[in-house]
Specification:
With about 90 residues, the protein is an all-alpha fold. It is built from two helices and no strands.
Length: about 90
């Protein structure tokens, strides 16, 4: 197994993980920022207020981007299996 193939697979894994996590993390970040801004303006300082909007927002983001996320994982798996023979030295 050559080092180049391992690095290529590791790069593919990290990029795929970042692409899959981005919509959910950005949604939670934006909702958290908006709720924090509203809490600062109204001087309502309860930590549990941001919890429900974040769960709802992340759920909606998951519903919207779920198909794309599954397709990205399928493409990653297909590309990994395509790389496997050359990693093992028979390709």
């Amino acid at each position: 197994m050559a080092d180049g193939y391992v690095m290529q697979l590791a790069t593919m894994m990290v990029l795929t993980a970042a692409k899959l996590a981005a919509p959910l993390l950005l949604t939670a970040l934006l909702i958290g920022f908006a709720v924090s801004l509203i809490q600062a303006l109204t001087q309502l300082q309860d930590q549990t207020i941001a919890f429900v909007p974040k769960i709802i927002g992340v759920g909606v983001a998951l519903i919207i981007s779920g198909n794309w996320m599954i397709q990205t994982l399928v493409n990653f798996t297909f590309d990994s299996f395509q790389l496997l023979p050359s990693m093992l030295g028979s390709g």
